[in-house]
Write a structure and sequence with these properties.
Layout lengths: L1 H27 L10 E7 L10 E4 L2 E11 L5 E7 L10 E6 L6 E6 L11 E3 L1 E3 L4 H9 L4
Parallel strand pairs: 1-7, 2-6, 5-8
Antiparallel strand pairs: 1-4, 2-3, 3-4, 5-6
């Protein structure tokens, strides 16, 4: 009888540990198990320069969404599909920029809200974009005196 109580308590302890490990893996991996809540927007960039699916979308340093996918469109531009939280409404003249966190950090999309009264509808498109700064190109222009 005493041994079965010990076995049961060890089993419950291991089960709780496995559930906690699974929960931490989902949270740290930023995986959304129950689907994405929000609406989808697209933006066409000439180059995404290291941006990846799962990167954050921020306004004023606050995360408001995630990059779902990056595909090549028919005009050979990088089409970025992103999900924005439903409470965030973006103006029609918003600007999407690809920025870097830190000197060699990860890439993310920064959205600068516009001043228009029109709001981008779900499945809409951000028309104004700024591609990322290519440090290699900038450095080579500086070194070879083409600045």
């Amino acid at each position: 009888m005493r041994r079965s109580v010990v076995d049961l308590s060890v089993g419950v302890f291991i089960l709780i540990g496995l559930v906690a490990l699974g929960w931490m893996s989902v949270k740290l991996g930023k995986i959304d198990l129950f689907g994405t809540r929000g609406y989808t927007l697209t933006a066409d960039f000439p180059s995404v320069g290291g941006l990846k699916a799962g990167s954050s979308v921020e306004i004023a340093g606050v995360e408001v969404g995630r990059v779902n996918a990056i595909v090549l469109d028919k005009d050979f531009q990088a089409r970025v599909l992103m999900t924005i939280r439903p409470e965030v409404k973006l103006q029609d003249d918003s600007i999407a920029s690809i920025k870097t966190k830190g000197l060699i950090g990860e890439r993310y999309i920064r959205i600068s809200p516009g001043g228009s009264d029109k709001v981008i509808a779900p499945n809409g498109r951000i028309r104004e974009v700024e591609p990322p700064v290519d440090f290699e190109e900038l450095l080579s222009k500086y070194i070879f005196g083409k600045v």
